[in-house]
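I'll show an entry:

:::
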Amino acid sequence: LNVADVDASVAFYEAFFGVPAHKRRPGYANFDLDVPALKLALNQSPPDASGRGPLNHLGVVVGSTAAVDDARRRLSEAGLIAFDEGDTVCCHARQDKVWACFNDAETTEIYTILD
């Protein structure tokens, strides 16, 4: 989610989920919950003048690079790959990922955390 004040948002979600943030960096935080299964990343950014709202993108975490490769093949065959990022650093972690884009605005990634 894009948020105006990451510290205030972290305080809200820590109270809401009842657990501390999993990772904190300047202008960034994430929650990595087992129950319910959820990875919520908060990115501090100014209000979006495009009217898209606070949703930055959706992500699906998978357990391995092989699972990302399977998704990469499936999305490629369906003509859905927007861009491919192997062994990249994002959200303060090394990841292997592939992205799909719907309607030139709604982006979704399938990724695994390498480090």
